Amino acid sequence: MTPPPTFLGMPPFPEAARSAVSNPQLRHNLRKATHTIRDKRAHVVGELSDWAELRAAGAAIKDRTLRRLDEYLVAAEAAVTAAGGTVHWAADAAEANRIVADLVRATGETEVVKVKSMVTQEIGLNEALAAEGIRAYETDLAELIVQLGDDLPSHILVPAIHRNRAEIREIFVREMAEWGVPAPPGLTDEPAALAEAARRHLRERFLSAKVAVSGANFLVAETGTLVVVESEGNGRMCLTLPETLISVVGIEKVVPTWADLEVFLQLLPRSSTGERMNPYTSTWTGVTPGDGPRDFHLVLLDNGRTDVLADTTGRQALRCIRCSACLNVCPVYERTGGHAYGSVYPGPIGAILVPQLRGVASGKVDPQTASLPYASSLCGACYEVCPVAIDIPEVLVHLREQVVEGGGHRAERAAMRAAEWVLDDAKRLRTVQRVAARSRRLLPRRAPGPGAAWSDSRALPEVPARSFRDWWVRERSAPPPQPPAASPQPPAASAQPPAEQNRIEEDDR
Amino acid sequence: MRVGLFITCVNDTLYPRTGQAVVRLLERLGCTVDFPTAQTCCGQMHWNTGYGKRIEPMVAGFADTFAGYDAVVTPSGSCGAMIRDNHPRAAARAADPGLSARVAAVVPKVYDLTEFIVDVLGVTDVGAYFPHRVVYHPTCHSRRLLGLGDRPTALLREVRGLELVDLPGEEECCGFGGTFAVKNPDVSTAMGADKVRHAAGTGAEVLCAADNSCLMHIGGLMDRQRTGMRVVHLAEILASTAG
């Protein structure tokens, strides 16, 4: 058996992005998919006159809940327990995986069906279960494509966004037989045919499974109710048919009341799939005799979240409801896809969440993690669409500070110090401008060394004969005092004709 | 009204003609323009790259240099946004406890050039003449952070001889992003290439914007790709006349 695909050992973002932007098929798939969802979202959000108020309410509810998270979690635990469920607390991925594996083993089963869940991917649950001899079957269509293709997810909502339908057909034909019901003969790449093949393949799985593993979109503290929001009905199958249900839920998923939930059930579908209402919204509270799973376990996971909560700027990332609107509008994500981010959480939200979960504030993270806060032009499109108003650019800049303070980027720090020395003082700035102007004929239009990162694709700007400052001082104000004798003489000055230095133009460039 | 011009370090050093255009334009509109020579940089590059704790001298320098003016006008959307959004944040954690008050006093007087002309002077026809086919690229910070809205295009529509054509995908970032352009050159170039392709597809001769740093990136790509297009700062178009 080949080892499972992994994000471990991924190169830093710029390097991973380089191969992605050079892949025409990937670029085409991503552009088409992101623009389709982006436009759909914009359309349905535009229908609501109170979207700004809903968004503010979503942010406020999350912030209020996070401020008293300890109380709401204890209340949720009490309610789940009272309803016949069992609550487990997991400090990290290893502990959560251990709890789930033990619970599955206690049932005597070696197979589980899974509802699409980001948090179980975050902790690497499938791989951990495989190591214990337990096979986890993904039942979401896109997750099925990823699993059958021995691939990695590249998007939060549509993890196979990097695949087109021809590639999906090929994966189904090649792989389905090995896992269960094979692809029907003569399978085409029509979406309906592909969906039917997946349906037939999965149906057998739903009917035979005794154990299901899910995440949850929300946990309503007042009643201990879990909520899964999905589009295909596979989640409903997994949540109702098996005898045992194990839900792994990040501690930030709690909302205090059903009235709070109502806000998110409006925000989430419009932001994620661009639908007015979500197709399958499943809720369950503990166990109900004769109806659904007999045994329900809730694993509440920290895995770095309390550290994020301790950072007053970074904690807004915990508001995230995993809609992926930020991915769909991100010009960087659109051109690189999700794999370049080296995590199950790609795009703008991944760039602020993953470094925090991996402990960037400690100053001890690997170069791949340290590259993530820089994977953005700070254009602000993500903040504009975020349904819970996470100021992603603000957090990116905040995390860049943490990377710098962690001791990274030695050459850059020296360059920044030099720039400060110039920019903290107008006289020094003017001196540097004059040196540049006098040597401007010697400056290349292609730069060597680190400057090649600019000039490999872009012409360098020409340095003008005079700075604006020089023009103003000579043309528009009284003569300035003579520069001090210690003023450095540029080496190129003698190479310039004297007229060059004194020429007066209106538009000198 | 005493108008202080914050030229920005990039314009000062590399694009003096943009600054000269701003002076010409504002004087034509009846303003008295001053350029206080103590000014340097808003600190945006340091802030956005993770060196925000080192810009206190620049923030203080800006607040003190421009304290005495009725209005501070700048021809750069990203520098204007840096001052408006981030100088108060930088001042709040500065060693100098008095800095926040000085920043708070100056920030409301800071205007992007187009805001100043449209909102303060109440003018949209600035008497300009620019006989070219032009696309306007709303840079991310002028659009999303400053919220310039339709001010720039309202000014452009009144320019004699100018044919303004829509830029497809105008809301998409050009890929400059300050140090992003050199830290992630491949993605930056891919974004810029799409921007150039959209602009060239309109048949326009000129792409204009309210920020020369974005134009440096877009124009640098156009130059290398031999598109035959050029980039021009909005202020230079508004300053140009038939005479």
From TrEMBL, chain A:
Gene3D superfamilies: Alpha-helical ferredoxin (1.10.1060.10), NagB/RpiA/CoA transferase-like (3.40.50.10420)
Residue segments, region Disordered: 471-509
Domain Lactate utilization protein B C-terminal, residue spans: 406-475
Keyword Iron: yes
UniProtKB keywords: 4Fe-4S, Electron transport, Iron, Iron-sulfur, Metal-binding, Repeat, Transport
Residues passing through the membrane, by range: none
Pfam families: Fer4_8, LUD_dom, LutB_C
GO molecular function terms attached to this record: 4 iron, 4 sulfur cluster binding; metal ion binding
GO annotation, biological process: lactate metabolic process
Residues in 4Fe-4S ferredoxin-type domain copies: 317-390
Residues annotated as domain LUD: 77-287
Biased composition (Pro residues): 478-491
Name the UniProt record assigns to this protein: Iron-sulfur cluster-binding protein
Automatic annotation (TrEMBL), chain B:
InterPro entries noted in UniProt: Cys_rich_dom
Domain of life: Bacteria
Domain Cysteine-rich: 3-84, 134-218
Any one GO cellular component localisation term in the record: cytosol
Pfam families reported for this sequence: CCG
GO MF entries: oxidoreductase activity
UniProt-listed PANTHER family: LACTATE UTILIZATION PROTEIN A (PTHR30296:SF0), UNCHARACTERIZED PROTEIN YKGE (PTHR30296)
Protein name (Swiss-Prot/TrEMBL): Fe-S oxidoreductase
